[in-house]
Amino acid sequence: MARSSIPFAMALLSVFAAACAKERRAVVVPLIDELPRARIEAKQDVFVKESTLTVGGDARRSLFMHPTSTVQFDLVVPARAKFSFAVGMPQDVWSKPGDGVQFSVAIGHGAGEQTTVFSRYVNPKAEQADRAWFEDEIDLSLYEGQRIALVLSTAPGPAGDPGWDFAGWANPVVRGISW
Questions:
Q1: Are 101 and 90 in contact (CB under 8 A)?
Q2: pTM for the whole thing?
Q3: Are 111 and 51 spatial neighbours (Cβ–Cβ below 8 Å)?
Q4: 172 near 63, Cβ under 8 Å?
Q5: Using one digit for the tens of pLDDT, what is the confidence trace for 62-83?
Q6: What is the pLDDT of residue 179?
Q7: I need a surface site. Which of 83, 138, 159, 167 has the fewest CB within 10 A?
Q8: CATH class of 24-177
Q9: Which residues of the chain, if any, have pLDDT below 50?
């Protein structure tokens, strides 16, 4: 390449890179908004719904899931995706009977395979430290471009007592970048 064409090639490359960058955009999928399209398994319809839950004085838009419940969201994972959320039990049940909630997230991929990628037991009825929202984030980049089932589940605590085990997933969102 002649010396005089190098600046032109660099300029052309810069324009191409800028055009590609404009094609990418942030992808934000609030899972609560996807609830009407999700697969829900619960003993009663009222056991899974959108709600505002207050934990430790902090009110948040939440996916209420009374144990034992499962909600499956089918999605194609965007580039650099992360699933962020918080789990907790609302303060109005802390003084009620029950043994807390086991929260879990699994990823369904392939022929019915599921991998559990998150699990947390919360019992603010017995543990003062559990009287808060617990923030977490799961890296989904391993599944980039793939269709997966993102499965949220709640189960009663170790005694199997679901009484007053109100559970919430605050602001569950998948974020990534489109290509």
A1: no
A2: 0.86
A3: no
A4: yes
A5: 999 999 999 999 999 999 999 9
A6: 65
A7: 159
A8: mainly beta
A9: 1, 8-13, 15-16
